[in-house]
Amino acid sequence: MKLAVLYRGPLASCNYDCPYCPFAKRHDPPGLLREDRAALERFTGWVAATTDVRLSVLFTPWGEGLTRSWYRDAMVSLSHLPHVERVAIQTNLAARPDWLAAADPATAALWATYHPGQVTRERFLARCAALLRMGVRFSVGVVGLPEHLDEARALRAALPERVYVWVNAAEGRRYTPEEEARWTALDPLFGYSVRPHLSLDRPCHAGETAISVRGDGTVRRCHFVQEEIGNLYDGTWRAALRPRTCVNAICDCHIGYVHLKPLGLREVFAGGVLERIPAGWPDAVISGHVPLDA
Ligand code: SF4
Ligand code: SF4
Fold first, then answer.
1. For ligand 1, atom 7, which residue shows the shortest CA distance?
2. Ligand 1: centre distance to CA 55 (Å)
3. Cα gap 38→215, rounded to integer Å
4. How far is the CA of 259 from the centre of ligand 2 (A)?
5. Contact predicate 56/5, CB 8 Å
6. With 0-12 CB in 10 A as exposed, 13-18 as middle and 19+ as buried, what is 9?
7. What is the distance in A from the centroid of ligand 2 to the CA of 206?
8. Do 284 and 278 meet the contact criterion of CB atoms below 8 Å apart?
9. pLDDT exceeds 60 at position 292
C-alpha cells in the first residue's frame, strides 16, 4: 500500500514579505511555535511507526518551515526510513541548505519558490547551486505575475536544463493567449496551472492514496475539502481510504489537481509528484512524450 501525505501544522509565519501572500512577515508567538514543533514531532513518530505503508510526505506549511530546526530535523530523519519513498517540503530557500548533507538524497527533495523582490537572483541561484552540488532533487518555480517575467526568464537561463522551472498562474488572474504563450515558453506545463480544473464528481486519488493531515492529526482527503474523514493518531484514517469523487466545483492548486484522476498528472510527474518534477524531465516533456494540454 502506498500513501502520499500532505502535512500542514499550525505554523503560519514567514521571513519574507511577498505582496501576494497573507503570511508575509507574520510572526508566530512562542507558544504556537512550541505547539507546531510538538505536532511535527508527533507526526514524524507516526511516520516512523507506520512501516506497513510506503509513505511519501510533503510538508506544506502556511509560512516558511525550513527556518525552523524541527522541519530540517524531520526532513533528515524521515529521509533515512526505508518505508519512506519521498520526503519533500515547500520552501522559499531562504535558509542555507547545508543541513541536507545529512539527509538521504535519494529520498529528500525540495519544492522551492523564487520570490523576486524578497531575495536577489544571485543569492537564490547560489542556494540552487548548493543543492546541485549535494545531489538533492528539487524543482524551482515562480508566481506568473507580469513583473516577475524578466526575473523568471533570467532564472530559467541561469539554471541547468535538468532543473525543472514551474510557473504558477497568479490567483484570480486571467491570462491572454500571448501572456500564456510567454509563460509556457518557460514552463511547458503552465497550461495545467493557467485555468482551474472542473473537478466536481470527478474521480480523485485524494482520500484514496493521498491525504491531508493537520497538526492535531485530523485527516481530510486534501487541503481543499474541509470534510474530516478520520484521524491519524487513532487509526481511523485506514478505514477512510477508498475511491472518491471530488465534491468541489474546481481544483486550481497543483498539490490538489496532481491527484485528479482524469488529468493523468500522476503519470506526467511519476517519481516526482510531491516535489513537482516531471518524469523524464527535460527530454520526455520537451519532445512531447507527455501530454501538455490541460
Ligand atoms: S515566501 Fe511564501 S509564505 Fe513567505 S511571504 Fe512569500 S509566499 Fe508567503
Ligand atoms: S480534485 Fe482537488 S479539491 Fe477535489 S478532492 Fe481532488 S485534490 Fe481535493
1. 21
2. 27
3. 9
4. 7
5. yes
6. buried
7. 6
8. yes
9. no
- Nearest protein Cα to ligand 2, atom 5: 246
- The protein residue with its alpha carbon nearest to ligand 2, atom 6, reads 204
Measuring CA to CA, how many Å separate 78 from each of 1, 92, 169, 250?
A: 18, 21, 32, 33
Q: Is the CB of 116 under 6 A from ligand 1?
A: no
Separation between Cα atoms, residue 9 and residue 7, nearest integer Å? 7
Ligand nearest to the CA of 249: 2
Backbone dihedral angles phi then psi of residue 9, each to the nearest 5 degrees: -90, -170
Question: Which of 18-32, 44-58, 280-294 tops mean pLDDT?
Answer: 44-58
Q: Where are the domains of the chain?
A: 2-286
For residues 154-173, average pLDDT:
96
Measured distance CA(242)–CA(248) in Å, rounded: 18
**How confident is the model over 82-116, as pLDDT tens digits?**
999 999 999 999 999 999 999 999 999 999 999 99
80 CB-contact burial (10 Å; exposed 0-12 / middle 13-18 / buried 19+): middle
Correct CATH for 2-286 of 3.40.50, 2.30.29, 3.20.20, 2.60.40 = 3.20.20
